[in-house]
Amino acid sequence: MSAPQVIELPENLDMPAAAQLADAFAKRLGEPLAVDASRVTRLGASCVQVMLAAARTWKAEGDALSLQSPSARFLEDLNLLGLEPTTFLNGVIAP
After folding, report:
1. Whose CA is closest to 71, among 10, 21, 14, 17?
2. Rounded to an integer, what distance in angstroms lies between the CA atom of residue 23 and that of residue 12?
3. Any idea where the domains of the chain sit in the sequence?
């Protein structure tokens, strides 16, 4: 298995960043992928939706998707939106 491609998330994952993030995922379809969240200082719902859709796609295709070095703020904002890193990576929101 080859080493995963890496998407380095920007500091500010707000609504304007969602389209760029979707494009970044689309360009890497069919490849193992790592999402580096070490620089994130703000995580908005629109980018979480993009990442959940990507997680679902990677899971459905049987490709590896991992989360690398999530910043404390990334984890905090994810939690505020009702998600945990494992939930996020599975592409599902638990009831």
Report:
1. 10
2. 16
3. 5-90
Provide CB contacts within 8 A for 59, sequence distance 6+: 65, 90, 91
Dist CA 48 CA 52 (whole Å): 6
Domain 5-90 of CATH type 3.10.20.90: no
Concatenated DSSP letters of the chain: -PPPEEEE--SEE-HHHHHHHHHHHHTTTTS-EEEE-TT-SEE-HHHHHHHHHHHHHHHHHT--EEEES--HHHHHHHHHTT--HHHHHHT----
Q: Rounded to 5 degrees, what are φ and ψ at 82?
A: 85, 20
pTM score above 0.85: yes
| Per-residue pLDDT reduced to its tens digit, 13-67 | 999 999 999 999 999 999 999 999 999 999 999 999 999 999 989 988 988 888 9
